[in-house]
Amino acid sequence: MAEVIEDFQALPETERLQLLLEFSQGLKPLPPQFEGHLEKMERVDECQSPVFVSVEVDESSSVHLHVSAPPEAPTTRGFAGVLQEGLEGLPAQVVLDLPGDVCHRLGLDRAVSPLRMRGMTGMLARVKRQVRVATAT
């Protein structure tokens, strides 16, 4: 995730939104167990668009994030893509230790509405909650 944040911070503010849109195009499709079964995923109510997340923590404690976000919501999809790429394969404890302001560290606060920033923060909160549940003994 630190590398993703560095990529955003290295760009002038005017180009960060374009990078976010590139992340929207890189959002991976849902695996078969979730395709057509959004009821198996958790809805992110903070998002205006219908966004659903599901986290898997494998036997080595690596995190795998699956997200459904509509194509007609490129900013939201971009946030989902940032989280998916930034968190994929990280150890569960590293994900849990992420600071609460990680979404704001992308430097998009002036380019994206506060409501959309709240949506990304909500996505991260759901991910962390699901990681906590998956790693509880």
From TrEMBL:
Q: Which domain of life is it from?
A: Bacteria
InterPro entries the UniProt entry points to: Fe-S_metab-assoc_dom (IPR003808)
Domain Fe-S metabolism associated as annotated: residue spans: 5-130
Which family does this protein fall into? Belongs to the SufE family.
Concerning PANTHER family, the annotation shows: SUFE-LIKE PROTEIN 2, CHLOROPLASTIC, SULFUR ACCEPTOR PROTEIN CSDE
Recorded protein name is SufE family protein
Which species is listed as the source? Answer: Kineococcus mangrovi
Higher taxonomy: Bacteria, Bacillati, Actinomycetota, Actinomycetes, Kineosporiales
